From TrEMBL:
SMART domains: HTH_ARAC. This is AraC family transcriptional regulator. The lineage of its organism: Bacteria, Bacillati, Actinomycetota, Actinomycetes, Streptosporangiales. Pfam families: Cupin_6, HTH_18. It comes from Nonomuraea diastatica. Keywords: DNA-binding, Transcription, Transcription regulation.
Length: 347
């Protein structure tokens, strides 16, 4: 399990509802439900993403924009459009599902066809738990991905799938949106002039990449720097220096923060599990040692975190988007497609 895959696992599209939207100008869709992450892809035509307090971004056919919430944003035919914004998600949010509001579809009056029509696909992602939030925190508010690369193949499949109504369509669309999101994030993190988190770029190093994969695959193992060095085939000093240089903190500091992230999700999601059981699950034989490490890292005790679901804010650390050496510290670090046939909507 590599770090990117591990952090992505709580951001999967699952059990979404789908509709269709063919938009003829003038039009304006106002996304108000505060989804943590929204993926917008234009299959045909053009439009503008207008984030709150951010400059507009034009979106052409085949291009994708990822918007990090919870601030609302608008998708319009042109900046300054005369169209009255249609609220998407305002009356169909479901906060009881995991505590996060997300879209269940919308009905609009923008349907149409012909010259100037735009076909839009939207995926509104829930972010479950602390694990995926580390990935979310590494993203800018607006992430733009031009057409081309691996995303093009996904677009072809999406266009074909949303044009039909066949058994298993929801599962297929869920997976295609996941594929699209991964392609977009890879392209953004791989840009020579862009910014990527230290843990992402470090995965390419033959030594540190192997160490990260081991820590994510076996977080509860009794790791020492020496045992990790043995498994990666280098000396203890080489691993310690190389890991700190590329990731921005020592291997065992990274491991502790990762264990506390896993523990936070266990505490929040499994009420029947005791603190002692959580401690054992993340590699601690002593619940007291685990509680001390959790409070040192998260600012509150495991019991307090379970009761309130919050931790003391931490200073920026290696999860801040950086290339190369990061800052040292102990920071821990559903989906909908918008496709509506004119005057119809489907759940």
């Amino acid at each position: 399990m590599d770090a990117f895959s591990d952090l992505f696992r709580g951001m999967r599209a699952q059990g979404s509802l789908f509709g269709s939207s063919i938009l003829s100008p003038p039009w304006a869709l106002h996304f108000v439900d505060g989804a943590p992450l929204t993926l917008c892809t234009v299959l045909g035509g053009t439009g503008w993403i207008v984030p709150e307090h951010r400059p507009p971004e034009q979106l052409r056919a085949g291009e994708t924009v990822i918007v990090r919430g919870p601030a609302p944003f608008t998708f319009v035919d042109e900046v300054g459009t005369r169209a009255e914004p249609i609220a998407c998600g305002e009356h169909c949010a479901t906060p009881e599902e995991g505590g996060t509001r997300h879209r269940r579809g919308w009905n609009d009056t923008c349907g149409g066809s012909g010259d100037g029509a735009t076909t839009l696909i939207v995926g509104a992602y829930l972010v479950r738990g602390e694990i995926s939030r580390r990935l979310l925190d590494a993203l800018p508010v607006v992430l733009r991905v031009d057409c081309g690369g691996g995303a093009n193949a996904v677009l072809d499949h999406l266009a074909a799938e949303v044009a039909t109504d066949t058994p298993g369509q929801q599962v297929v669309l869920d997976r295609l949106l996941d594929w699209m999101l991964i392609c977009a994030l890879r392209e953004y993190f791989d840009r020579p002039t862009g910014e990527s988190p230290a843990w992402y770029t470090a995965q390419r190093d033959p030594v540190v990449g192997d160490a990260l994969r081991l820590l994510h695959a076996e977080p509860a193992a009794p790791w020492t720097v020496s045992s990790l060095a043995d498994r990666t085939g280098v000396s203890r000093s080489t691993l310690a220096k190389r890991f700190a240089d590329l990731v921005g903190e020592p291997p065992l500091t990274y491991l502790t923060r990762w264990r506390m992230t896993l523990a936070a999700d266990l505490l929040a999601e499994r009420e029947a599990v005791t603190v002692s059981e959580v401690a054992h699950a993340v590699g601690y034989s002593d619940a007291f040692a685990f509680s001390a490490a959790f409070k040192r890292t998260r600012g509150v005790s495991p019991s307090e975190f379970r009761r309130t679901g919050t931790t003391v804010p931490e200073p920026a650390g290696p999860t801040t988007p950086l290339r190369g050496r990061g800052a040292d510290g102990s920071q821990v670090g559903g989906v909908l497609t918008a496709r509506r046939r004119p005057d119809t909507a489907r759940e």
